[in-house]
Amino acid sequence: MPGLGASFGRGGATNFLEDLANSDCIVIEGSNMAECHPVGFQWVGEAKARGAKIVHIDPRFTRTSAIADLHVPLRIGTDIAFLGGLIKYVLDNELYFKDYVVAYTNAAALVGEDFVDSEDLGGLFSGFDPENRVYDEDSWQYEPEEPPHSGSEDPAEAAEQDQLDDHVDVKKSDRAEAAGSGGPPIPSKPKRDETLQHPRSVFQILKRHFARYTPEMVSEVCGIEPAVFEQVAKWVTENSNRDRTTAWVYSVGWTQHSVGAQYIRTCSILQTLLGNIGRPGGGILALRGHASIQGSTDVPTLFNLLPGYLPMPHALQHQSLDEYVADAAGKAGFWGNKRAYMVSLLKSWWGDAATAENDFCFDYLPKINGDHSSYRTITDMIKGKVSGYFLVGENPGVGHPNSRMNRFGLANLDWLVVRDLQMIESATFWKEGPEHETGELSPASIGTEVFFMPAATHVEKEGTFTQTQRVLQWRDKAVEPPDDARSDLWFYFHLGRILRERLKDSTDPRDRPLLDLTWDYPVHGETQDPDAEAVLREINGTGPDGRALSSYMQMKDDGSTTGGCWIYCGVYADEVNQAARRKPAEEQGAVASEWGWAWPLNRRMLYNRASADPDGKPWSERKKYVWWDEDAGEWTGLDVPDFEKNKRPDYVPPEGAQAQDALAGNDPFVMQGDGKAWLFAPAGVVDGPLPTHYEPAESVVENAFYKQQANPTLEMIEGPWNRANPTRSDVYPFQVTTYRLTEHHTAGGMSRTLPYLAELQPEFFVEVSPELARLRGLTNGEYATLVSARTAVEAKVLVTERVRPIKLRDGTVVHQIGMPYHWSYAGISTGDAANDLLGIVMDPNTHIQESKASTCDIVAGRRPRGPELLEFVESYRRRAGVESGRVGVNGRDPVAADAGEGSTL
Amino acid sequence: MTISSASPAFTGRDPHNRLFGPLPDVQGEAGYEEEHPKRVGFFTDTSVCIGCKACEVACKEWNTLPMDDSHGVRDALGLSGMSYDNTGQLGANSWRHVAFIEQSRTVDLPMPTFGRPGDDRQGSGPSPAEAGDDVSLANAQQSVLNAEALSEFDPQTGQSGADTQVRWLMSSDVCKHCTHAGCLDVCPTGALFRTEFGTVVVQGDICNGCGYCVASCPYGVIDQRKDDGRVFKCTMCYDRLTDGLQPACATACPTQSIQFGDLDELQARADARLATLQSQGVETARLYGRDENDGVGGAGAFFLLLDEPEVYGLPPDPVVTTRDLPAMWKAAGKAAVMMVGVAVTAFLGSRKR
């Protein structure tokens, strides 16, 4: 979550769901909270019961809108324009929280003279490299307070790292994600102008940048009435001050865009200006869609991260531990201790084998050398570059955009391991996928050997979930899994055990990383399940005495401590499984600090030092949360302070101070190199230091703000299986957005097979407005066919006034189609896969696909069958001037069709 | 003690036999001893329903009901085309049914909001420090319809060239557990009975599938399972109640739209809620099934609706089908006497001849 990470220092929701009850206004934007997070939605209800205004901003009128005070039906893909308008409104009317902005943000920081804003370059920032479609961020830097790198212990090393930063392979490897817990590294603290008047101050740059985001412009771009915008602006600003706070809630309605990270950045700027970060009832809640999605980035399943948001070493940059930590060494903020976190991690993994002499086995870590993200890997599969693949609780043949292309990828492997609860489409595509009918996949020639391993469900295994608000909750095993179903922990532990067993006599140095691993978890029960608590304790880390650590502040870089994920340090403090705590709400305060355990250090609200003024006093009695207790000489309050307990509010760092000691007593954003919330991001976001409105990659509308139509750095995958619909094409004239329903779970593996859920939404359907139904002759309850440059799918039609066409000022009518994506051919409730229709276009920060905005055509009736389908789609491509999408056998590029079966490895 | 249709109210041995009108002690009327538990019920506040259907799923899970389609056809599936409602109706296999009603009008439509009575929160509210004790669960139920929010301007206007506003009503329907239950009154086998909690339950092992109850329910709730013949309906989780648990649907509801509890307490809560709504100018809000003078003597499961009952598929003026039973028996008796008289007269007359 680089949008939040770059703004505040950590890529997680700043507040917790229960805290929404303290909000005076809640804006739900880019989220269908009532449908997709119904349990958490009770706190929105609670806030409403206390008198809060609830605003839902979404192209569709959903079950969330049904409960809101106000629904704003903006055009798909225009949130930056809307939020940018709010920023301008706040700046113009001087409604920002001045004391907060001056003290806690980088508004006063000066940006270097080389920076040129997108307003002056037609939508591009300075430093754009059109050839590689990446930015060189050098010109976005602060004007330094001191010469760059003077604080570093090894200036030469750091300078060299800086140069390598600009290498295109390094840029493409997505360092933005590494801002998950710890803001992006910056060379030094900036020069400041506390009056905010300097023309190169962030505050003045911000004013100029958003000058054209007027209510009229918002109205035109978003397709809403100016009065609606004014009403939202009024409610939000009236409820953002010393006494009142406004919360913003988003989820994948923001992230799944080619400018997704910048949507979140825009919101971060607004909420920072309003002084809503680090305060009760404020904040930005990133709702995460699955039980442990936050956990899956904390202890990551991402190619470019190690646990605790430590970046994965890069082959070009990081040949040694020293090189790896050079960017952080001696810097201000908690990233200054990166070496201690990394050494503890290496000690956790390789135990006694990791010594100071061998760089604590740093060489054992695999190094990345570019973008190895999910969709890029699928492309590589089709090209025969990947031999094997593990699919764990993922159904790319349904859930990934352009699922057809994903199935081609899977068809070109040597082996595929699928661990799931059900026999999902990604395990049966080779014999049952829709491409058999069209002749594109041929089971006889598919070389992929599929191993299906039944998985245990969450009640059949023990362990923790880390949910949307960073709280780890332990659960016990309720029942034994049936038959051969096993937990993931069981699977990977025994897989590792067997591999090590096989290699035990190996003298090949490349096998050392596997053989030297600490792989000695106690097992129990008939099935030899590893003890999940032992794993949690290892993640927590231990000190020189072998006892569990209680804080990552205790971690050392000399190899005397261990820790599998530094941000989780403390979850096993005092040798107690803190995640298993279940103290009822009635027996503790509203913050419920003794229910489970939250990272970091059980702090429920991040940056809560900002809930007090620079002197350490609460901004107001009504919104008091954490404050300085002069008598006790410590920070105290309702939550664990997200600040050093005994650092006085008037502390000023001495000359040459490093890491956290270099942050002042009024620097609440402790993970940032300058301790401030970033209105302007000199680093950490690869597509610009400030957000700008770009149209989605597939849009039917011209960008009204800039010459630059779409995000200049967006990532595309080229190939016959991923053709793009041209912008503003008459052939694909309608906007389409995908989403989930309460009744089903994502790609449907957990719901389409269950009778009680399947009957509630029994078939694939699309939602269209009565106007579009008339235009295209569609009938409620009958079939329609949707066509893109990828393929065509058929769905039942639900005609509803909840979907609205948008009328733009020039008279253009933008029709929008809603398309839930749960279905495919398996299970009880079936249908075509909505994701077959989508292409893969990605946000350059996160490699997340733009599944919330694309284009298509819709016609009445069912789609053609078999090879006729291919010709039908191809005829659309010809009309639209798109290259052919015909593929060779099993999805291979016709040119490469003779490359053989399976991978070429 | 199990009481069935052999209860005094049915057999007519009770001099106070009543099949209509208010009944303060429905269990006592059914023959339970005085120390029986209080009458329980459901208050379904549709203004806070988010249509998640967790109630439907929890009900089917707990009661192991088969799936069916929107026409009540068992094990069949298909899109109904009626908004997000693919359940269609209450039936033998669906004991909770969430209705989805999409409305669009050119007039102001108040949207449901939550809020404490009289608290528009322009000055102060609780700080987080005191939040826990100050705002109780009950307060969360004191919802208001915020008419002001939408009367100021119309957020939906002009988007499609039509001055329409959209409102999406959701309501979880269920068996009403009537004070005077037609189904219970007509059951010839004693399969239907009044429980000690005042609810009405079918005993599957006694039901002979005659189907009289199906025709006698003024709401069309109780239904025969096609391939089985017996009738099924909501039991208000009788098995859970006897174990001190709440019904499955109420437990699953994330917004407390479905509230379970002692009926008198729920009624008081509902009255307060309605008063709040009316003070906010929401004239369309009403309670349904709350009035003990209505045709079924008031329902054990009653509702707060935001529109006419017909909009939700509910009968506007349900009357227990056995209301006129005494009169009918009286009339039938008279007729019988008369016929006997005629026959006797005829017989005697013929003898005379």
Automatic annotation (TrEMBL), chain A:
Domain Molybdopterin oxidoreductase, residue spans: 14-423
Sequence similarity: Belongs to the prokaryotic molybdopterin-containing oxidoreductase family.
Gene Ontology molecular-function annotations: 4 iron, 4 sulfur cluster binding; electron transfer activity; molybdenum ion binding; molybdopterin cofactor binding; oxidoreductase activity
Chain intervals with Acidic residues compositional bias: 154-163
One protein family per Pfam: Molydop_binding
Ranges of compositional bias, category Basic and acidic residues: 164-177
Localization per record: Cell envelope
InterPro entries membership: Asp_de-COase-like_dom_sf (IPR009010), Formate_DH_Act (IPR048158), MoPterin_dinucl-bd_dom (IPR006657), Mopterin_OxRdtase (IPR006656)
Keyword entries, A-Z: 4Fe-4S, Iron, Iron-sulfur, Metal-binding, Oxidoreductase
NCBIfam families recorded: formate_DH_Act (NF041513)
Disordered: annotated span: 140-197, 885-905
Cofactor(s) needed by this chain: [4Fe-4S] cluster
Domain Molybdopterin dinucleotide-binding, first and last residues per copy: 734-852
A single Gene Ontology CC term: cell envelope
Protein name per UniProt: Formate dehydrogenase major subunit
Alphabetical GO biological process terms: anaerobic respiration
TrEMBL record, chain B:
PANTHER family in the cross-refs: FORMATE DEHYDROGENASE, NITRATE-INDUCIBLE, IRON-SULFUR SUBUNIT
Binding annotation for [4Fe-4S] cluster 3: C175, C178, C183, C217
GO cellular component annotations of the record: cell envelope
Source superkingdom: Bacteria
Species: Blastococcus mobilis
Residues that coordinate or bind [4Fe-4S] cluster 4: C187, C207, C210, C213
Protein known as: Formate dehydrogenase iron-sulfur subunit
Cofactor binding summary note: Binds 4 [4Fe-4S] clusters per subunit.
Taxon lineage: Bacteria, Bacillati, Actinomycetota, Actinomycetes, Geodermatophilales
Residues at which [4Fe-4S] cluster 1 binds: C49, C52, C55, C253
Biological-process GO terms, alphabetical: cellular respiration; formate oxidation
GO MF entry, a single one: 4 iron, 4 sulfur cluster binding
Keywords (A to Z) from UniProt: 4Fe-4S, Iron, Iron-sulfur, Metal-binding, Repeat
Cofactor (UniProt): [4Fe-4S] cluster
Subcellular location: Cell envelope
Record's keyword annotation contains DNA-binding: no
Domain 4Fe-4S ferredoxin-type stretches: 40-70, 166-197, 198-227
Pfam families with a match to the protein in the record: Fer4_11 (PF13247)
Binding site for [4Fe-4S] cluster 2: C59, C234, C237, C249
